[in-house]
Amino acid sequence: MAQAKINQLKSGEADNKFLRSMSMADRSGRLLETLDELEQRVEALREAAASMEQEKETLLELIQSVQNSQDMRNISDGEREELNLTANRLIGRTLTVAVSVQTIRSAQQE
């Protein structure tokens, strides 16, 4: 019977619950690694959102710049009205984009 058990261990057929079990330190380490990876992704998300926020402001400034440009003054009233309608539509669509990055502070940090 002991020989059968040894043969099972050698062939990998045995129920190796104790051999496969992971220590608390290993589990904790794996969880910490996962959280570290997630923290990096959260930081990348925050950076992308801040970049999008800046892009929104840049677009609004550029559209308003086009509206106030000298070229707009040197075209016919009909063309200017049509271009202003398009610019206002673009401003409206840009303003519908809501991006927000907030920094949460603890009572000690404030």
What does this structure look like?
- This protein is mainly α.
- The protein has five helices and no strands.
- Helix 3 runs antiparallel to helix 5.
- The relative contact order is 0.08.
- The model has no long low-confidence stretch (mean pLDDT 86).
The number of strands is 0
Question: Which word captures the global form?
Answer: elongated
> Ranges with pLDDT <50 over ≥5 residues?
none
Largest pleated sheet: none
Share in helix: over 70%
- The chain-level mean pLDDT equals 86
Number of helices: 5
What is the ordering of alpha helices and beta strands? Answer: HHHHH
Indicate the radius of gyration in whole angstroms: 31 Å
Strand content: under 5%
Alpha-carbon distance between the two ends: 70 Å
Structural class, from helix and strand content? mainly alpha
